[in-house]
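== Sequence entry ==
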Amino acid sequence: MKNMKVVMVVMFMALFVASSAMAAVVYTTATVNRTATTANGSTQLKLTDTGSNWAGGQWFTCPTGSDDQALATALTAMSLGKNVRIGFDDTAPTVLTQIGLQL
């Protein structure tokens, strides 16, 4: 019986690790269309994928703690007419994990 418990624990851990490994960061290049601040103070960016994957654009929320830097990057891209390179977790596709100016 003890061996059965050990086997079940090992199988559960393997399943947990496998499901955690399925989440991946997706990268794409986008154009910044708009910026906004919500009532709770979070920063949102409306981006259009340069590959046309989002019809009409997609709103993304910037992570708390780095929203000032994301907003600065977005406004710089808008003022210079540049695109941004973004990353987001495929399990939470409207929350940015990375943003950078595409030179």
Notes: Strands lie at 25-37, 43-49, 58-61, 83-89, 96-102. Residues 24-102 form a domain with the OB fold (Dihydrolipoamide Acetyltransferase, E2P) fold (CATH 2.40.50.110). Residues 26 and 72 are 22 Å apart (CA to CA). The chain has one domain: 24-102.
